[in-house]
Amino acid sequence: MLVCCRSTGAVVDANRAAEGLHGRSRDALLGLRAATLHEGLRVVRGDGSEVHVELTVTENIAPDRDLIVERDLTERARREAMSERYQLLSKFTRDIVLFVGKDGVVLEANEAAARAYGYSRDELLTHNVRDLRGPGTVGFVEAQMQEAFEHGILFETIHVRRNGTPFPVEVGSRSAVIDGEVVLLSIIRDITERKQMDATLLQADRLAAVGTLAAGVAHEINNPLACVIANIELVARKLARLESEGDAARAQVDELSRLIDVAREGADRVRLIVRDLKTYARGDEDTRKPIDVRAVLDGALSMAQSHIRGHAHVVRAYGEVPLVYANDARLGQVFLNLIVNAAQAVTNDTQQRHEIRITTRTDMAGRAVIEVTDTGPGIPDDLLERVFDPFVTTKPVGEGTGLGLFVSHAIVASHGGEISAESRTSAGEQTGATLRVILPPWLVAAAPSSPTL
Predict the structure, then answer these.
(1) What is the pLDDT of residue 72?
(2) What is the model's pTM?
(3) Higher-scoring residue by pLDDT: 320, 425
(4) Predicted local confidence at residue 453, as pLDDT
(5) Alpha-carbon distance 382 to 375, whole Å?
(6) Closest CA to 148 of 114, 170, 176, 168
(7) CA 16 to chain centre
(8) Are residues 363 and 431 in the same domain?
């Protein structure tokens, strides 16, 4: 507050608030003309900085004296500028932007939110965020909001449009202070395209692996099938002879039984190969159930035999492991990738007999641990840290896409597990690699958690 001489315009008095606003002492303000202190609705402070103000002038409060009341509008101007910038950002961004109160009510929404959910902005402001969540996800809202207010949170879940259509989203949410009220600022991204791309990539890797296995699987099927056909032909010829031999044919009946048993074993082998191929190649949804990883490993080993035979000896060092809650086709895809990689790592070395060791055990945390170890050349140090990145491969051009371990990492992570790689050295030389998969036990993996896709 300033008091000025009406006739000269000079400051004759100033309070402490005026000193703070102008950045000058009272003595420094006295005698200055008020017009030099104000440039429109700005005050130029003693240090050269500017302050936005609102001026109220009361004339003749005393003979030849005017009162000037100055109100600092800097904070309001800053907030208005911030609000204008937010309006621009939220208007043109493709992401959904919501302000949410502590009770979950939507306080503000941008145009992208209205388009995504199918409501008008005014309609959205009557909704609670629980109304926007997909079936089976509402129960997680309380814990997620608490985490968002306290620390900030990033998670995936399902939201639902006005017409009931669900869609996957990634939600980043943290607290913000708006007009003195603590609210949640949530940036929500529709990740439908990303999920579709992930599914396409997953199926592409599976089909690429099926193509790699096709010749070997055909060979695996042809061998037992040829055995079945040959034995059936022998049985047919012997039966024709037995028709004329009567009781003297008893000894030959035993021989026919043996041939039939061999044929049955061959046919059963064909059935198992086809079953494993169908399990691995099918493109079903991510249905999960309790699974013994050793059975899945056996199926993957069966599929990879054409790659292993003649190059390495397989050691099954199966220890006790808990059941895991998994999709057998996707888990089989992981194990097949690891086993085929191990087989290909030793394929080019004809100087020694290599070993592929498959180990299962339970760690101290009760998790299932699966290790695939080979005695090949190992993984170069410059690739070891990037081995799970897309398109990174140690194979020659044309022999690998560089997607197998990348996809395997994504599958294991989606099951709540971990995957890692180690390369062993001996006398300064690399002597093999171990790929390790760790999966949570069934009862832990199947327990409710933050919903993800």
Answers:
(1) 78
(2) 0.45
(3) 320
(4) 31
(5) 19
(6) 176
(7) 58
(8) yes
